[in-house]
Amino acid sequence: MSTVVFASMDADTLGGIQRVVHTVAQGLAERGHDVHVVGLHRAADPASYVGFPRYSRHVISPGPEPAWWARRRTAALVGSLEPGFVVMTSPGVVTRMKDLLGLHQGIGQYHGSYAHARACWHYASVKAHYGKLDQAVFLSPDDAWRFAEQALLPNTWDIPNPLADWPAEIAELDRHRVLAVGRLAGVKRFDRLITAFGRTGRSSWELHLVGDGPDEGRLRAHAVAEGVADRVRFRGRIPAAEMAEEYRAASLVALSSDHEGLPLVLAEAASYGLPAVAHDVSGGIRALVRDGETGLLAPPGDVAALTAALGTLMADTRERQRLGAAAREHARQFKLPRVVDRWEELFTHLRR
């Protein structure tokens, strides 16, 4: 068994990276690994992801401590553990910790897509630092290949995000409800989804937006402008324990983001037998949604194509059932035990 450290900027805030970290940490701990989840900073509004964690949790800087103090404390924590693997979950964490690993092997993980990295400072940071680590881990084979070819990384590996649970009961796909889940913020582009939903002309259908965020007022006004305010339901934040009911009550899931890594909402929806409509913005999206097989993909930013895809599935129950059944079968590869297997394969590879 191995010592495994997962380090994030803040490990307990509400977010996709944090959820993945705690889920994988618990899975590895249940197999006997000595697992530690480290937050370099304390989360302002901590969230709980695992009811009874079998791993250790650490916060390096509870307050505004100086950088030298945080580095010293980080090095002391890492040095106190038996040599193993330190997984740094973002470029920011890599730049802060890459020189503090001691006898541990360093793994740089990137939770975004190649396309998103190229559009911001992440690409330069990944190119500069990840290739010098023992391994660079990405969310999909497509993203790993692109980083290997374009950023010239010699050490790429791919491991998807995991599904924490596998439902026994699935959606019946007979209710006129489109589900979208995410923070109501610009990158999710729910304005596009509201527009596309309205343009389908399916007046008996509702769009349910699960999540909260700074753009709620703007999106409500946009729904009014599009003439669908009475059919767009702003549900707010719903606890994870209650999301099963939301998935079973829907007939398809939609994702309209400008960029995504490997969004768990699509995998979770697929596990309930929901087909997906999404913009094709990353290798992670394509790993989750096989166009015409488990859902429908629209070109990035193309509202007309998104409208057509939504309309196709809203109009055809049998097509939803066909795609939904295939989506559930495809999602089995993202079950937690299989993802933990991939992490253990990586550890074995690094020991050789």
Automatic annotation (TrEMBL):
Xref: Gene3D superfamilies: Glycogen Phosphorylase B
Q: Where is the Glycosyltransferase subfamily 4-like N-terminal domain?
A: 15-115
Ranges for the Glycosyl transferase family domain?
174-329
Which UniProt keyword terms apply here?
Glycosyltransferase, Transferase
Question: What is an example of a GO molecular function annotated in this UniProt entry?
Answer: glycosyltransferase activity
**Stretches that traverse the bilayer:** none
Keyword Glycosyltransferase applies: yes
Tell me yes or no: is Isomerase among this UniProt entry's keywords: no
Fetch the InterPro entries from UniProt: Glyco_trans_1 (IPR001296), Glyco_trans_4-like_N (IPR028098)
PANTHER family in the cross-refs = GLYCOSYLTRANSFERASE
Q: Return the protein name.
A: Glycosyl transferase family 1
Please tell me the species this chain comes from.
Answer: Acrocarpospora corrugata
Lineage of source species: Bacteria, Bacillati, Actinomycetota, Actinomycetes, Streptosporangiales
